[in-house]
Design brief:
Layout: H1 4-19, E1 38-43, H2 47-61, E2 65-70, H3 72-80
Parallel strand pairs: 1-2
Amino acid sequence: MRHPFSLAAVVAAVLLAGCASNKVPVPVAEVPPVTPALRVYAAGSLRGALTEIARDYQARTGQPVALTFGASGLLRERIEKGE
């Protein structure tokens, strides 16, 4: 080797260049957060009132509302089973 110092300098320069920061911002896609539906279980006799309330709530907040109506005992069983 005729120029060992030159070779070492070139290798060092290449290695240091690889460590340099580009500081180029990476664009991040703005994804709106996924809002799960608000689940409401209620007796069938409340259908009229809760449907109107749910519609107004969803219009104001943008959060979807999932209404489930039925007999109280059946709804209790569904909730206890993890639905």
